[in-house]
Amino acid sequence: MPDKLNFTLVSPERELMSRDVDQVDIPGTEGWMGILANHSPLMTTLAPGMVKIREGSDEKRIFVRGGFAEISPTGLTVLAEEAMPAEELNAEKISQRIKNAEEDVADAQTDDKKLAAQQSLDSLKALQAAL
């Protein structure tokens, strides 16, 4: 039996998953990475996208809006800025959040606020595209 990867995914709101899995694919800012047990240690930032968790023939998908991933001898830990299981995603709610974010970009009074609002809008559009 092949080795299992100890995987944990947490967001500021909650721990979404903590279990042994076969493989996890993560959207790194440098590109997609497939992580198996015994992977070399590494730390990377995450781009907005779907984390794909494989256990046998089952696959679970969780959208992350940025964050960090740490691969160590003990496994993979993903610290997401925001994370939502794919089954909780609702196209109508996402469209409304995009509309609100577009208003935030238009209403921003400083460059810093405009940049933060634009980053939020970009990640929501990535979420919408991932659906």
Brief characterization of the structure:
The protein contains two helices and ten strands, in the order ββββββββββαα.
Residue ranges: pLDDT <50 for 5 or more in a row? none
Helix coverage percent: 25-40%
- Intertermini distance: 34 Å
Sequence of strands across the biggest β-sheet = 2-1-9-8-5
Sheet-strand content, in percent, reads 35-45%
What does the oligomeric state look like here?
single chain
Structural class call reads alpha+beta
CATH topology of the largest domain: ATP Synthase, domain 1
> Main sheet, how many strands, which sense, barrel?
5 strands, mixed
Q: Using DSSP, what is the number of strands?
A: 10
Helix and strand element order: EEEEEEEEEEHH
CATH architecture of the largest domain: Sandwich
CATH class of the largest domain: Mainly Beta
Q: How much is the average pLDDT?
A: 89
User: How many domain units?
Assistant: 2
- Tell me the CATH superfamily of the largest domain: F0F1 ATP synthase delta/epsilon subunit, N-terminal
Radius of gyration: 16 Å
Overall shape: elongated
Contiguous helical run count: 2
Can you walk through the features of this model?
This protein has 131 residues and is an alpha+beta fold. The chain folds into two domains: 5-86, Sandwich (ATP Synthase, domain 1); 90-130. 28% of the residues lie in helices and 44% in strands. It contains two helices and ten strands; from the N terminus they run ββββββββββαα. The chain has helices at 91-107, 111-130; strands spanning 5-10, 15-21, 23-28, 31-35, 42-46, 49-55, 58-64, 67-72, 75-80, 83-85.
